[in-house]
Design a protein that fits this description.
Blueprint: H1 3-26, H2 29-36, H3 40-46, H4 50-75, H5 79-96, H6 99-111, H7 115-141, H8 151-171, H9 179-193
Helix pairs in contact: 1-2, 1-4, 1-6, 2-3, 4-5, 4-6, 4-7, 5-8, 5-9, 6-7, 7-8
């Protein structure tokens, strides 16, 4: 990794951490610069404003999510494997990096007032749903899954399930430790994938 890439990664980590913990309103250019250990001037070289910071952090999270969905479908070839992979992905995020969801939900709130964040979120969200839809379509063509629902609707429902559970688990963090919850999520996804 080049020194430039290292610096960019350090700044994005600072942006991500502060936006997720302090929120959009509580994050300032000065705080990000201090957290990243760079000057405000250098920070402005990378980002014009907080909107760009949030949009970039969301983009990075979504790119990771898209990559992980493809990996789940590459590495599994049963409805149960897909459901276990999706559930495991959500559980891993909630146990190890709940700021991942804090950042998305912060983005949803800001998107109502920011065209920059709103259009970024819309584009990336559409890409995630389309990636999931593509994976489901392929699994259907290979006769691995046989959903009763049309694949585009199924992709939207699973995306909504992930987001809804993310919000619920952030709101009620004790549920993250409840294996029954995770088993129920996995079962629900399997049921959606089979006739």
């Amino acid at each position: 990794m080049s020194p430039e890439d290292v610096k960019t990664k350090k700044i994005l980590n600072a942006v991500r951490t502060l936006l997720a913990t302090k929120g959009y309103a509580g994050t300032t250019i000065s705080l990000v610069a201090a957290e990243a250990g760079v000057s405000r001037g250098l920070l402005h070289y990378y980002f014009k404003n907080k909107e760009e910071m949030l949009a970039t952090a969301i983009r990075e999270n979504m790119e990771i999510s898209i990559s992980m969905i493809h990996e789940i479908f590459r590495n599994n070839k049963t409805p149960e494997g897909y459901a276990r992979g999706i559930t495991g992905l959500l559980r891993g995020v909630m146990e190890n990096d709940p700021d991942f969801f804090h950042l998305f939900f912060e983005g949803f709130a800001v998107a109502r007032q920011s065209k920059v964040v709103g259009s970024e979120l819309e584009s990336l969200y559409g890409r995630f749903r389309k990636a999931l839809e593509s994976c489901l379509e392929q699994a259907g063509q290979e006769e691995i899954i046989q959903p009763e629902l049309p694949v585009p609707g199924l992709a939207a429902i699973i995306t909504g399930l992930i987001d809804g559970m993310g919000l619920q688990l952030l709101t009620e963090p004790d549920l993250v430790k409840d294996d029954e919850i995770w088993n129920s999520i996995e079962t629900a996804i399997v049921d959606l994938l089979k006739k």
